[in-house]
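[Meeting: bench + compute handoff]

Bench side (C.D.) handed over the final construct sequence. Compute side (W.E.) agreed to return the predicted structure before the next meeting so the bench team could plan truncations. Sequence as handed over:
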Amino acid sequence: MPSQIGIRSCPRMHILSRQQLIGLVFLTLIWGINWPVLKIGVSYYPPLTFRMLSMWLGLPVLALGLLMMKVPFAIPRAHWRELFWLAVANMFIWHVLIIFAVKELSSGRTAILGYSMPIFSALLGAFFYGTRLQARAWAGVLAATIGVLLLLWHELTHLAGRPLGVVYALIAAAAWAVGTQMLRRTRIPVPTLTISFWMTALTCIVITVLSSLFEREQWTMPLPVTWGAIIFNAILIFGIAHALWFSLARDLPPIASTLSVMLIPLVGVFSGAWWLQEALHWQDTAAVALMVLAIASVLWPSRQSA
């Protein structure tokens, strides 16, 4: 029997399997490192076009995964409307707005703002979806909130000069939180990988239309460094990580699937500092401890009920 880490909902928390834990660790590393990768990509190339190329190249990778695992592609026509709204909340808004936020802000701070999503998601679940949270889960939300505020502390004067970037990231995070709650409750009777494939395909079309409308005059052949960022996103982010995230978000309770990946902005902050020489301050170190506390609040084993 695989080792398990307890994540329970009141009165019992859900059980996080070894496979799910490995998936969360993979997401933390890949998505965290991707923030400076994104910053490099959009520094030399139009943001929507960068996103468009990454997604179109990633879609065949995702399709190959479905074929190899013999996952069906078909979604019943009756659920197409629900699929569309899932894509709007989980993909359309997030991918358009967050790529503009990365263009405006530092990679680390964009990651922090984007991953305020778990806070939105936990509160949405508690206030609108009737999710009952244990006291320690609320403590985790509070710790994560303080951690985000600390990481933004030194940026406040800079943020005043980049209001649109902040707005883009926070709206993207809020939309993603709504999408996570919707995905958790979807009744579409197909595997999560199928849903992920079609949400990605729909987003490819939307991003292509937007890029054609607003960036067509800027279309050029990407530089080698840009191609590297595009390929990283195509294979690891759109080909693998998104499908893995949607599976975890659908299978795990929202508080577990969201707070448990709060290390992603920390990886983004420190990888950006190392790779792009983005400055770090004492608030970053303090936030690390708070984020670890937030994760421990939902991942630390609980005593089994007698």
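W.E. noted at the follow-up: Strands lie at 4-8, 13-17. C.D. will use this when planning the next construct.
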